[in-house]
Design brief:
It is built from 11 helices and 17 strands.
Length: 406
């Protein structure tokens, strides 16, 4: 039997370990609580993590990243005590300083077009915006914000001439300093192969993996037969959504409002509709068209799918329009915007699903404006600019014209 002395020593050791565990928990928990209770800015990276956890998509990596960012943010608030007084909305440089001071020391950029989103209140205004980090490798950081719901917009591009210092640590990690305040951005990873959970048809080509700002993940596919893109739901890391039956062959997301065509033959969910109201608001459920990975070389595919990109100065390899006063990228949005989901279902149900699969997927996802008359007008403009022959050098089979009803 254990002696009284030995029992007392064990008891003290247990109390010491329990006290240390409690102290460590307090040290970790207090900064995290401070971040969520005191930060006047709502950073979207935490919202996305919580959405995944809500639907059971939890990994040790995601938990560690969440704790690291929230804890370091709380410590920063306790130590530096950033100003809580927001500057005037019409002074972007001051607004940027204010938001940058409240940003977590380690910001994780999840949406794949490279936007680090935030929401906050400034005076009587609700304000949404983002830091665009896709050009950090060039030493630049773009910044935009707008009021909700009236959408008065401000934007600016920051570089070395503004006092921005960018240090690239590796392919996806950048340290950014602005007037004495330093932050680290972790950019989206760059998968080179398609998810194994998504099968491709012989006519299809894997383009990239999209992590949408809604939290949903998609595989962007290009169909060489019909010269179109479309988005296939990627279930690899779980689906942060409750998909409910919406007619015989469709599902609708309870949280996002996304509408999917269920193709049982190919075991895929094809995105076919998003809410028009979300598009107008420019909220997180406006569809993955603005989250195409910024590093992809898409120019030739874009010429085929969106021939208007050849007009004028054209686009660069990533689909960014050249010689524009502001940054503007072609949106790859192969789905319909619906004012009423019931009307959308009626329209989609009318599509003949007995046709060849490429033609079916194209018919279900083709943008409303992409009509034969519209394309004929674009071809006429290209001929006037002497650029029509560029399309003839690319693979654009006759089936594409049939799929578009031309």
């Amino acid at each position: 039997m254990m002696s009284e002395r030995a029992r007392a020593i064990v008891d003290r050791c247990v109390r010491f370990v329990a006290g240390m565990a409690c102290a460590l928990t307090m040290c970790a928990g207090i900064p995290i609580a401070v971040h969520f209770a005191s930060n006047p800015v709502r950073w979207h990276q935490f919202d996305l993590a919580l959405v995944d956890w809500r639907y059971g998509n939890v990994t040790l990596s995601s938990v560690a990243t969440f704790i690291d960012s929230a804890w370091s943010s709380g410590v920063q608030i306790l130590l530096s005590r950033p100003s809580r007084e927001p500057p005037p909305l019409d002074e972007p440089s001051k607004v940027f300083r204010y938001l940058f001071a409240w940003m977590p020391p380690r910001g994780v950029v999840l949406p794949t077009e490279g936007f680090y989103y935030f929401r906050t209140r400034m005076g009587d205004n609700e304000v949404w915006g983002n830091f665009r980090v896709a050009d950090l490798s060039k030493g630049m950081l773009s910044f935009a914000y707008f009021t909700v719901p009236d959408k008065t917009v401000w934007s600016s591009n920051l570089g070395s001439e503004d006092g921005l210092v960018v240090d690239r640590l590796d392919e996806v990690t950048f340290d950014v300093e602005f007037h004495g305040v330093s932050r680290r951005f972790l950019l989206p990873e760059r998968p080179a192969t398609r998810p194994l959970a998504v099968d491709l048809a012989p006519d299809e080509e894997y383009v990239g993996t999209i992590h949408d700002e809604s939290g949903m993940r998609f595989t962007l596919v290009f169909n060489r037969n019909t010269s179109v893109f479309y988005d296939v739901l990627d279930p690899t890391d779980g689906v942060p959504e409750t998909l409910e039956p919406f007619g015989e062959k469709f599902l609708i997301g309870r949280r996002t409002g996304f509408v999917f065509y269920v193709d049982e033959l190919w075991h895929r969910h094809l995105l076919v509709g998003v809410s028009l109201e979300s598009v107008k608001r420019n909220d997180f459920f406006d569809g993955p068209g603005d989250q195409v990975p910024f590093y992809l070389d898409l120019r030739e595919k874009l010429y085929l799918a969106y021939p208007q990109t050849l007009l004028g100065a054209g686009i660069d390899d990533h689909g960014v329009y050249l010689e524009k006063p502001q940054w503007m990228r072609i949106a790859i949005c192969p789905y319909l915007r619906y004012a009423s989901p019931w009307e959308l279902r009626e329209r989609l149900t009318a599509v003949d699903d007995a046709v060849e699969r490429s033609a079916l997927w194209t018919a279900l996802t083709k943008e409303w404006w992409n009509t034969p008359d519209w394309r004929a007008g674009i071809y006429s403009d290209l001929e006037k600019e002497g650029k029509l022959e560029v399309l003839s050098t690319l693979t654009s089979p006759a089936e594409a014209r049939e799929a578009f009803g031309e």
